[in-house]
What does this fold into?
Amino acid sequence: MKKFKYFCLTIATAAIVSLSACNNTPTAENPSAPATTSPSTAQVTEATTHSGHGGKAKININTAILSELDKFEAKLGVPALSNKIQASRPYASPEDLVTKKVITQEQFDQIKDQVTVQEVVLTGETKDVDYMTKLGLMKGHLLVAQELLDKNLPKQAEPHIGHPVEEIYVDVEDQLNERKVKEFKTTLVSLQDLVKSNPKNAKVKTDFTASVESVDGAIAVLPEAQRTKPGFVLQVINGLLDAANSEYGAAIADGKIAAAIEYQDSRGFVVYADDLYKSISSQVAQSSPDANKAIEASFSDLVKVWPSAVPPAKPVKTPVEVTQLIKTIEQNSQKIIDKSSTKAQR
Amino acid sequence: MPNNLLLGKEQLFSRRQLLKLGICGAGVAGTAALWHTLNAQSKSIVKVPPLAIAATSQTTNPMQMLRNFDYGVVKQENGRTVREFQLTAGTSVIQLNSAVSYNVWDLNGRIPGPTLRAKQGERVRILFLNKAGHSHSLHFHGVHPAEMDGIRPVSNGSAAIYEFDAEPYGVHLYHCHIAPVTRHIAKGLYGMFIIDPPTPRPPADEMVLVMAGYDVNDDSHNEYYAFNGLPHHFMDNPIPIYQNQLIRLYVLNIIEYDPAVTFHLHANFFDVYRSGMTMTPSEKTDVITMGVAERHILEFAFRYPGKYMFHPHQDAIAENGCMGQFEVIADKSSQPPRKTS
Ligand SMILES: [Cu+2]
It folds into this structure.
């Protein structure tokens, strides 16, 4: 490792010298110049191979969920650092944490080995949260699609059957394969085709049931202990609510619900998040009664914002009010998540 | 050059590793300043009428988008110029006319998104942050490795980095590539991407015109159309240009749901540089057909002062908002440019 760094610094120094020499000449004017001055493939590969060894697992500050960023918060002891890191996205390089004034250089030096902006292979709980959140978004879409089909509104239901495939499936496909979940893209796509072309067909009902079962089955491959652990489920809930929040904001214009699709998306996500919370609320009530009270109260206000799958004439709450409720849930659940992740680390 | 095209993710990785060790930032000011000086020099020969653009926080401001180019932040890394751009997808509401407002997805708070501009051979790095609810992505036209193609969904709240070499030169575009792409584009996730040739084009009054449609009732049919985001704006606010001044229009057709439209200029003919990928015009015409995502550079100068319309010659589309005009301002001192015969 040490040897490698030395090697790189040599290249770096050489590059700086040649760069400052370039400053007065318009090298950029010459199209072939930049290509030839880029490092050779050999140097590049070397760097990758060596830097891959040793070191702890890295965290991608552009995509990591809050509880993962908590590792930095805990290490540096900066309150609400996870949220600050999220709020200053995107980052072009780890050093941007300093240039964007999220943390100081001294603090950065303490964590820089664990920070990356490159795609990392998710592991452990983070990976499971990511997996279940994505399936949860699918589930939310299907819940609202079901309601619209029941109301005999196949045209409105159709996009919510399409979105799980179009916006989410590709993103979770590798994980599904890895976890040996039988592919269900075909099921979703054929259901969408059917709803589009022949919504009255009796097969819609059976295909829909099959689709929902596929998503449920994919969630069920997670160990039950995981799926019922408050600290885990709350992370999923927060992911769903975050998406719901953006969608609700996108639905409203001039004090009216102008975009039904986004309203419906947010309804689906909130309904499923509420379901998930109900499954863990008694556990939370025991361990953190205050947090439970706050979360339950916010949820009961929140679900009223979506009285039906068909948008109401006038929004029940403004996007700002919805954001506030969701923030309250997030803040209170963070306490529980923190507790559970410190326990897990021990 | 071909070697660069084949750079994979691994190589990109390690390039960053090297940067981490301290190359970052060296020589940034030098090259950046140089290009801007060159630009400023060429602009001094170009006559651009002063524009009174209202300072506004509006998502749409067609006049402001007209001559506004985003050159990004320039860095020197490993002896190469890297141009770094930041694009954040969000949600907003635009006012299509006094009665109709419409929910869009915007990029950096505007629709169309910023016109990104780089030079052939530079490294381009785009930091994309999605804060718009659904999964979105950014797909750039041009030549780049598969993993930089921008078809993978970037989920709400997370960021992705697209990095590739700027090539080939031309007028390109970028847009969200999540299905249904029609909807994701039509609701605002697109912009122009210009790669300048190694030898700069002759000085001109340069402007961007992006044609787009709005399907306000989700029936896969556009009810409104616009240049640079807002229906009829350039009809009500003609674009001032000078007589005999060479005008260079970067025109993009990103109208979804209609297979093709034309671009027609009144009382004149323009030189066509197809896709902006040549330095010599392929034809001279006053109407050019453009399919979805087609874009060209059009050059012309007006000989006589006055107001001149431009619009697709699908007149129904023009009448529903895709219509504008130039106001040619008399310039006694100017000589007819070489280009006009
Ligand atoms: Cu999109």
The CA atoms of residues 62 and 90 of chain A lie 6 Å apart. Chain A touches chain B through 76 residues (CB under 8 Å). The longest helix of chain A spans residues 260-287. The two ends of chain A are 29 Å apart (CA to CA).
